[in-house]
């Protein structure tokens, strides 16, 4: 199966499970559920969930009946982060994935959801992610606890997504340093990406050696993923990105192209992907698809 066919197949699989997990639009309070579902099904590639599933399969050919649900918890947290990131107080964007952002989208009666409902929709998606993990029906209690702790750490303030977002805000218009830049990228984007493969491995009950190798893969692939995002913000159009291109420079964000230039940034992304793939060598041919997905991270155009 080609990589593109594989990605489409996996995305459909994940979307089906997300449809089951997300509250229906008619459930009271309906407006926040409409907002949640609007952003959740606005065309995401489901990259984090796909990496989670693939990491689980790397550990075991039968990683457990709850693995799809585990992978969906990542999309719930990721979508929450996008809704909040697009708000005026943060990145202030009107478009995401080629559609109006949650706070700009018009819901019932041609009335925009607005910032308040968008904030609450993001909050609801975040809390739903932990509810989903805590209620996994066929996963041992100790594994469920480890999954909840892992996702909470990745989304939190200490070397996690929120910590990276705070550092990103504080770095605007400040002096550029390699240390600050790497911390922001490893935390804001890399932490959740690394958690994607770690959740898959934990859910499949990986041993310590397997988890260490998969963690090394996730740390390096996650950093490469964000470096490529920085590059695409410079080189791609708003149409291909589905969001406003060139905003990093306008907002004076700390990015790899700003500090190192485009060519050096591309070399660094390729280097990190090389390290990520090397970490999977102990798995042998079973890691072929995950290595192919790693290459996709740095070759994508959106």
Task: Please describe what this structure looks like.
With 302 residues, the protein is an all-alpha fold. The protein has a single domain (3-299), classed as Farnesyl Diphosphate Synthase, CATH 1.10.600.10. It has helices at residues 3-21, 30-40, 47-59, 67-85, 114-134, 141-155, 161-171, 178-203, 208-235, 238-241, 247-250, 256-260, 262-279, 288-299; strands at 95-96, 99-100. It has a two-stranded antiparallel ribbon. β1 (95-96) and β2 form a beta hairpin. α3 (47-59) runs antiparallel to α4, α4 (67-85) runs antiparallel to α5 (114-134) and α9 packs antiparallel against α13 (262-279). The mean pLDDT is 90.
Short characterization:
It is built from 14 helices and two strands. The protein has 302 residues and is an all-alpha fold.
Features:
2 strands, Farnesyl Diphosphate Synthase, mainly alpha, two-stranded antiparallel ribbon, 302 residues
* Individual helix count: 14
Question: Which CATH architecture would you pick?
Answer: Orthogonal Bundle
**Helix-residue proportion:** 55-70%
Content-based structural category: mainly alpha
**The number of domains:** 1
What does the secondary structure layout of this molecule look like, with pairings?
Blueprint: H1 3-21, H2 30-40, H3 47-59, H4 67-85, E1 95-96, E2 99-100, H5 114-134, H6 141-155, H7 161-171, H8 178-203, H9 208-235, H10 238-241, H11 247-250, H12 256-260, H13 262-279, H14 288-299
Antiparallel strand pairs: 1-2
Helix pairs in contact: 1-4, 2-5, 3-4, 3-8, 4-5, 4-8, 6-8, 7-8, 8-9, 9-13, 13-14
């Amino acid at each position: 199966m080609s990589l593109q066919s594989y990605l489409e197949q996996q995305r459909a699989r994940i979307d089906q499970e997300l449809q089951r997990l997300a509250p229906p639009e008619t459930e009271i309070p309906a407006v926040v559920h409409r907002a949640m579902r609007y952003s959740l099904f606005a065309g995401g590639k489901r990259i984090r969930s796909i990496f989670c599933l693939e990491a689980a399969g790397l550990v075991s050919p039968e990683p457990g009946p709850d693995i799809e649900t585990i992978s969906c918890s990542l999309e719930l947290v990721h979508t929450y982060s996008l809704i909040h990131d697009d708000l005026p107080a943060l990145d202030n964007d009107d478009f995401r994935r080629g559609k109006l952002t949650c706070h700009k989208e018009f819901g019932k009666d041609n009335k925009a959801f607005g910032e308040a409902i968008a904030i609450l929709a993001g909050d609801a998606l975040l809390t739903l992610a932990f509810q989903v993990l805590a209620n996994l029906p066929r996963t041992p209690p100790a594994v469920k606890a480890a999954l909840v702790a892992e996702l909470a750490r990745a989304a939190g303030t200490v070397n996690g997504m929120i910590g990276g977002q705070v550092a990103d805000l504080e770095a605007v218009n400040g002096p550029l340093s390699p240390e600050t830049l790497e911390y922001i990228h490893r935390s804001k984007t890399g932490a959740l990406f690394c958690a994607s493969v770690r959740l898959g491995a934990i859910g499949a009950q990986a041993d310590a050696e397997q988890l260490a190798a998969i963690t090394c893969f996730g740390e390096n692939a996650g950093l490469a993923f964000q470096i490529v995002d920085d590059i695409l913000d410079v080189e791609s159009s708003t149409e291909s990105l589905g969001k406003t291109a060139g905003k990093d420079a306008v907002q004076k964000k700390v990015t790899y192209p700003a500090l190192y230039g485009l060519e050096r940034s591309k070399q660094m992304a390729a280097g990190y992907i090389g390290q990520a793939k090397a970490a999977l060598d102990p798995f042998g041919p079973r890691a072929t698809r995950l290595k192919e997905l790693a290459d996709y991270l740095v070759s994508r155009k959106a």
